[in-house]
Design brief:
Layout lengths: L2 E14 L3 E8 L3 E7 L17 E8 L7 E11 L1 H6 L1 H17 L7 H15 L4 H15 L22 E3 L5 E2 L9 E3 L1 H12 L2 H6 L4 H19 L4 H14 L10
Parallel strand pairs: 3-5
Antiparallel strand pairs: 1-2, 1-4, 2-3, 4-5, 6-7, 6-8
Helix pairs in contact: 2-3, 2-4, 2-8, 3-4, 4-7
Bound molecules: zinc ion.
Length: about 260
C-alpha cells in the first residue's frame, strides 16, 4: 500500500457507519479525491477538528488497489476557514457554493495548481472580510474558466468576428457568445461593462477585485451568466447557488437581517 503526503482542502464530509467520515478533498498534488477517516467522529478522535469543511490540512493517506476511496491515516491543520463559515450564514452559504463548484467541476485525481491557488486566495480574501458577493462571482468566473466552460466573449462563435468594444455580446443557452446579427434573440446580454468586469477578474487577484467591486447589478449579471453556464454544463442547477443568492439578498434588504433570528 503506497503512502502519500499531500496538502489539501476539505471540501465536503459525509458520515460513514458509526464513527467514520468520508471526506472529499482537493489535494495540491493529486487533485480531487475521496478518503475515509476511520474513527473521525469519535469524541476523542486523533483527527480533532482537522476534517471540517474549508480546512486546509497536511495529509497522509494510503491508496488501496482497486478501491476508489483512499484511507486517511493522519491530518494536521495548516489553516482553518471553518470558523468564518460558521460565523455568518451568508459566508457559510458562499463557502458551501464554492465547495460545490470544486466538487462538480474538478475531475477526480487530476492535479490543478491554478485551482488550488484560486481556492487559497479566495478563502484568504473571505478571511480578510472582503465583499463576499464579489468574491463568489470572482471564484465562479475563474472556476468555470479553468474547467473549460466559461465562454470567451472576445469574438462571435457564429461569424468569428471580434466583439466591437462598445457592442453587446449575446450568450445563448449553450454558453456560446454571439454578435447581435448572429444571435437568435433569446440570449443573455453581456454589455461592454460586464465584459470589462470579467477582464478585470481574469487580470487581478480576488482581494484586489473585491476591494473595488463593481455595483451590485453588475455582479447580478455575472451571477445570471454563471447560472446559464452551470445549467448547460451539469444539466441541472446547484442548490447552493440559489441558497447563497437568496440569503445574500435577504441580508441586503433592510429589516430582514438574519442576525435577528440567531
Ligand atoms: Zn456573429
Amino acid at each position: 500500500m503506497p503512502l502519500h503526503n499531500a496538502q489539501a482542502f476539505v471540501l465536503r464530509t459525509y458520515k460513514l457507519a458509526e464513527a467514520d467520515k468520508i471526506c472529499v478533498l482537493m489535494t495540491r498534488q493529486s487533485g480531487k479525491l475521496r478518503g475515509v477517516a476511520y474513527g473521525a467522529r469519535k469524541l476523542k478522535s486523533r483527527f480533532g477538528s482537522c476534517l471540517e469543511p474549508f480546512t486546509e490540512i497536511s495529509l497522509t493517506y494510503f491508496e488501496k488497489d482497486g478501491r476508489e476511496l483512499v484511507s486517511i491515516s493522519n491530518a494536521e491543520i495548516v489553516r482553518s476557514h471553518y470558523a468564518q463559515a460558521a460565523d455568518s450564514v451568508v459566508a457559510g452559504a458562499a463557502m458551501s457554493y464554492v465547495s460545490d463548484l470544486c466538487c462538480e467541476f474538478l475531475p477526480d485525481h487530476e492535479p490543478s495548481d491554478p485551482v488550488y491557488r484560486l481556492l487559497t486566495a479566495t478563502l484568504d480574501a473571505f478571511g480578510e472580510g472582503r465583499d463576499v458577493n464579489a468574491l463568489v462571482r470572482y471564484f465562479e468566473v475563474w472556476m468555470l474558466k479553468l474547467a473549460g466552460f466559461y465562454p470567451d466573449l472576445r469574438s462571435c462563435a457564429g461569424c468569428g468576428e471580434p466583439a466591437a468594444p462598445g457592442a453587446d455580446v449575446w450568450i445563448s443557452a449553450d454558453g456560446a457568445p454571439r454578435c447581435a446579427s448572429c444571435s437568435s434573440g433569446r440570449s443573455l446580454r453581456a454589455t461592454p461593462a460586464i465584459r470589462e468586469t470579467i477582464a478585470r477578474i481574469l487580470a487581478k487577484p480576488p482581494a484586489t477585485f473585491a476591494e473595488s467591486a463593481p455595483p451590485g447589478d453588475q455582479l447580478d449579471r455575472l451571477s445570471e451568466l454563471a447560472l446559464l453556464i452551470i445549467r448547460h454544463a451539469l444539466e441541472r442547477d446547484l442548490k447552493s447557488f440559489a441558497l447563497f443568492n437568496r440569503l445574500r439578498r435577504e441580508t441586503e434588504t433592510p429589516g430582514t437581517h438574519l442576525e435577528n433570528f440567531e
